[in-house]
Write a structure and sequence with these properties.
alpha/beta; 6-stranded parallel β-sheet; 43% helix; 6-stranded mixed β-sheet; 347 residues; binds alpha-L-arabinofuranose
Length: 347
């Protein structure tokens, strides 16, 4: 509830700021102005004529693929609520890239005002985004990037996945000296997702730059705790003590790996256990970082709803958003994190 109030305040604030910068008062009588009036006037019936909602189609990759994705889905649903002046439809592709493209075509056929996409895969977007462009429907990329001509979408907002990976590999460099052999196993995200491509890419570059590092094994854990646990259990049987680092591309997979290591009686985390790298930094996993089970947890912020809504409002006002907007992200370490830091987190 508190988050929602903040959000409405941010949106109203953003809105009033934009409204007062527009020269031509007539320009403000768009849906956005109606939305502001609606948000301020709580007595107004939801969809009175002249108060029509802004229709938004959201193509989510898999709404419950991870704790991060659940927080992201909630952030979008909160920001694009009817109370905020939106008619919001989410299509869940269940991580099926072909279905997601069909979902987006469906939104085009429904003639929504805006389309927002969290892409399952970086490829395969040119045709359908061309259709959206022909239909005059602005497309916003949220969280995940794609391999398509930039003129086919308005902008992207999200985390810097490659830079997140660099934060993680920098930590490995601080943990091991240059003359120590370092065996790394990599639990990858869904293959082809820009989050996976960026984080795996950073690891590949660091492996190339550090001759004492070796990639013992690598496989996609589909962002899932259970899948990661299964894979880690078989890696422990195959490689045992050759494993010095687990590079898990999200919190859920890190958790799965930790469960497998503990069940095998192997020391996890801390100063001298198998080092655990994770990404997302959801609260529950920051708790595991404080406990020393996760050594380095790189933040990826799921709360992209308010930013995406702000961009829609700016477009409604005839404004131009930045083509790329990277959300600030940090990293947390088992030997410096505190309970106060965790308690201050929003997710
Ligand atoms: O795109 C961000 C990634 O998607 C998160 O790191 C992962 O947890 C999510 O499912």
């Amino acid at each position: 509830m508190k988050k929602l109030i903040c959000l409405v305040l941010v949106m109203l604030l953003t809105f009033s700021l934009v409204a007062c910068t527009t020269e031509d008062p007539a320009a403000t009588t768009t849906k956005a102005a109606a939305t502001t009036a609606k948000a301020e006037d709580t007595t107004a019936a939801p969809t009175e004529p002249g108060n029509e909602l802004i229709t938004v189609g959201f193509a989510q990759c898999k709404a419950d693929e991870s704790d991060w994705r659940k927080a992201n889905t909630a952030s979008m649903q909160d920001a694009f609520s009817e109370a905020n002046g939106f008619s919001f439809t989410m299509a869940d592709s269940n991580n099926d890239a072909a279905k997601q493209v069909a979902d987006v075509q469906g939104f085009i056929d429904q003639e929504v005002d805006y389309i927002i996409i969290a892409a399952v895969n970086m490829d395969g977007w040119d045709t359908v985004l061309g259709n959206a462009k022909d239909a005059g429907i602005p497309v916003i990329l949220m969280d995940r990037t794609i391999n398509a001509s930039p003129d086919l979408y308005v902008c992207w907002v999200g985390g810097g996945f490659y830079n997140e990976g660099v934060k993680a590999t920098d930590w490995i460099s601080t943990r091991f000296t240059a003359d120590e052999e370092v065996g790394i196993v990599n639990l990858q995200g869904q293959l082809g997702a820009s989050a996976q491509v960026g984080r795996s890419g950073a690891l590949d570059d660091a492996l190339a730059a550090n001759s004492n590092w070796s990639l013992v094994a690598r496989q996609t854990g589909e962002w899932s705790t259970d899948t990661a646990k299964e894979i880690m259990t078989s890696w422990i049987q195959q490689y045992g003590d050759d494993i010095d680092v687990v590079y898990a591309e999200n919190d859920n997979m890190a958790d799965g790996a930790i469960q497998a290591l503990e069940e095998a009686g192997m020391k996890v985390g801390g100063d001298d256990g198998v080092a655990i790298i994770s990404f997302d930094a959801n609260r529950a996993y920051l708790q595991m970082t404080l406990e020393g089970k996760i050594n380095c947890n790189v933040e990826c912020n799921p709360q992209l709803g308010p930013k995406a809504a702000e961009i829609v409002m700016l477009l409604e006002e005839g404004g131009t958003p930045a083509k790329e907007e990277s959300i600030d992200e940090t990293a947390f370490y088992y030997d410096t994190i505190t309970q106060e830091i965790i308690d201050a987190r929003l997710y």
